[in-house]
Design brief:
By secondary structure, the chain is α+β, with helices and mostly antiparallel strands. The strands form three sheets. It has a four-stranded antiparallel sheet, with no helix packed on it. A four-stranded mixed sheet has the order 2-8-7-4. It starts with a helix and ends in a 5-residue tail after the last strand.
């Protein structure tokens, strides 16, 4: 007889309290007591006696606190508890599995950290039987980090009974070690496979190359074109000033002189910029 069967015989929930178990037992025992069935046929009395014996057996089982799974918290059993990934090259991937079991009381949920570290990921979780536990968890490790350095991470696993608010938690230690030689070999291979993109010029030849020469000149066409553009803009501004503002003649003349000086200076500089050109050595 187990806890579930004993509860079914008494007609109570598996999570029933001690008081509920006792009250249901008294109710059942009174219904099936021989004194209550003296006027019943022999077959019914015998059936009641057999059922009463079963009720007494179930009550004795439920009355033992060591049989109550709801007073026993869930307990994790994980194999293995330490996983080592050794001699991985940068970018290389390796996988392994671990098994999660419950060796304690009832539970309602199980939780596994999907990615405890950038280089460690849970890729698959599969039930081995028709029940939720035991579980087979597949871990994938990707080689990354500094060559020769060891990295460590804890894979957290939790088992919880929400009805009794009990939780069991374990941490599986996972280690990663990058092989320095494999990293150097991988880097050398990448360099050797890189196609040549440019011709390397020896330093003496590079120094012998003459620099381009820049000649100065003046473009009258660019100067006049730029000055004309300033004149057009200035005409529009003068029209707007006289149309919408009241400005004295003195201020107007001063502003016009300043604008003309700016226009002439900018246009003169633009003429030099356009007129100057870069010539390659030996083209003169």
């Amino acid at each position: 007889m187990d806890w579930s069967e004993a509860c079914r015989i008494l007609g109570i929930e598996e999570s029933a309290s001690v008081e509920e178990i006792k009250a249901q037992y008294i109710y059942k025992a009174q219904l099936l007591h021989p004194d209550k069935n003296q006027d019943k046929p022999e077959t019914i009395r015998r059936k009641a006696e057999a059922e009463l014996a079963l009720v007494n057996q179930a009550f004795d089982f439920l009355n033992d606190p060591t049989h109550n799974p709801y007073k026993i918290p869930p307990r994790l059993a994980v194999e293995p508890m330490v996983i080592r990934f050794k001699d991985l090259s940068v970018g290389e991937r390796k996988s392994t599995t671990l098994i999660i079991r419950n060796i304690g009381g009832p539970y309602t949920s199980v939780w596994v950290d999907n990615q405890p570290a950038p280089w460690l990921t849970v890729t698959r979780v599969k039930s081995i039987t028709s029940e939720r536990l035991p579980l087979e968890v597949t871990l994938e490790c990707t080689g990354m980090g500094e060559p020769g350095r060891q990295y460590t991470s804890d894979l957290t696993i939790k088992l919880e009974n929400e009805s009794t608010h009990t939780v069991d938690q374990v941490g599986v230690k996972v280690e990663l070690l990058i092989n320095p030689e494999s990293v150097m070999a991988s880097a050398a291979k990448r360099v050797s496979n890189t196609p040549a993109r440019a011709r390397i010029i020896p330093s003496d030849q590079a120094l012998a190359q003459p620099l381009p020469e820049k000649t100065k000149g003046f473009s009258v066409k660019a100067f006049l074109f730029n000055l004309l553009a300033f004149a057009v803009i200035g005409g529009v501004v003068i029209y707007l000033v006289f149309a919408f503002l009241e400005v004295s003649n003195t201020i107007f003349i001063i502003g016009l002189i300043i604008y003309a000086a700016i226009a002439f200076g900018v246009s003169f500089n633009h003429g030099f910029s356009v007129g100057s050109k870069i010539e390659k050595p030996g083209t003169r």
